[in-house]
Amino acid sequence: MNQALTQVPAVPLHIGGKHHASTSTEWRDVVNPATQEIVARVPFSTPDEVNLAVATAKEAFKTWRNTPLAARMRIMLKYQHLIRENIVALAELITREHGKTLPDAEGEVMRGLEVVEHACSIATLQLGEIAENAANGVDVYNIYQPLGVGAGITAFNFPVMLPCFMFPIAIACGNTFVLKPSEQDPSSTMYLVELMYQAGLPAGVLNVVHGGADVVNMLCDHPDIKAVSFIGSTHVGTHVYRRASESGKRAQSMMGAKNHCVVLADANKEQAINNLIGAAFGAAGQRCMANSVVVLVGEARSWLPEIVARSQALKVGPGSDREADLGPMVSKAAMQRAEKLIQAGVDEGAQLLLDGRGHKVAGYEGGNFMGPTIFSKVEASNSVYTQEIFGPAMCVVETDTLDQAIAFINANPNGNGTSIFTSSGWAGRKFQNEIDVGQVGINVAIPVPVAYFSFTGSRASKLGDLGPNGKQALYFWTQTKTVTARWFAPDDGGSGVNTTISMK
């Protein structure tokens, strides 16, 4: 092995409550996207390692499922405290491997922390329901029991928040878990897992494997895994949902998007422009909830030159620079894909008002930097509209009326999120009622709900009836058992045989 590589830390697996060195012969470099420095190496787990992780989780489930609710809650309370103490350390790991700015990374940790805080309420969340005397002397009640071993597969763009969308609630409900984080930026996820064990989680309840398609397929197929949660691209998410479902598992896939931000001329101009720019270009556009399409309605068209000017003024730099507005893209391949789509937009006739390709940052000339990019005159058939660029690129569409804007958005197959900026309560209410998108923001550009509400993307952006967070997460990670019970008095001889379906 190259001497330089021997000095790069190897990312371990986490099995049975401790680090587990992989024996894999297939490894991937984890690269700082601002400097191209190799900061870690991650293994692609072997089949034996995946099987060991699942078997460990299955064994741990035997005792964890019966751990009292209050005991699980206390672990979660300790966990949220540890995350809060380590926000800066987690953010630094995110920035080093993903590239997003430190303030943005710290914000990501806080959004993940919200879910953990929600999981701290498990003692009241997991209460059942009872109907006394549903029939003569008969009580009927529901109880919410854990499923068994759950699995989570997460994308690179939120290496702390997305795992928090999965394992805290699943574990709090009494399940055990096998997590496969993104191989592009796994270190912050691993630190998150280590903190979970510092909080007192019993060995084997949470396990981590790494890898690509082969590992994903094993998790989808494994007979001892009862549910699979996925967040990532539409292509992979569709595959995961189908394969896991065909294997008899409960599955949910949160997938791709093309989110729209509608701007009416009666909106607060300063607030609207600042918010839509931040939503489009923050994290270099690498958010599934990024508002990458701006729909200017009526006289709001006149705001376009100011939108371009303010976007052009954003500072591009390494994520470690707290003055930077957006950092690098996660990889050379991601940047090249975005550049290819931008060129396709030009070739197809969209008007390129601001071109961020080829952006160089002094001292970081090798970084994967792209500046804000803006297209106008975008048609629904253009590649920059039909495909998720997942980079700092904004498409601007113009309509005469709110009705036209709503119709345009509803014609898009995706339904992850959308927003409207207006000072009219009537317009806001009309928009929320008529728009066919699962998550709606009114004067909120990125409408990711707080953790005690469920993530409710829709249409092509989501597969599965139940989403992460909120009540839906509780229902996804538990099975409902209904008990119908009657207790006879010792001297009750009954009233003979009942051959009907009615209760007597």
From TrEMBL:
Keywords assigned by UniProt, alphabetized: NAD, Oxidoreductase
CDD domains: ALDH_F6_MMSDH
Magnesium found in the keyword field: no
NAD in keyword set: yes
Gene Ontology biological process terms, A to Z: L-valine catabolic process; thymine catabolic process
Enzyme Commission number(s): 1.2.1.27
One Gene Ontology molecular-function label: methylmalonate-semialdehyde dehydrogenase (acylating, NAD) activity
Domain of life (superkingdom): Bacteria
Aldehyde dehydrogenase domain segment(s): 23-483
Pfam families in alphabetical order: Aldedh
Similarity-based family: Belongs to the aldehyde dehydrogenase family.
Designated name of the protein: methylmalonate-semialdehyde dehydrogenase (CoA acylating)
Taxonomic lineage of the native organism: Bacteria, Pseudomonadati, Pseudomonadota, Betaproteobacteria, Burkholderiales
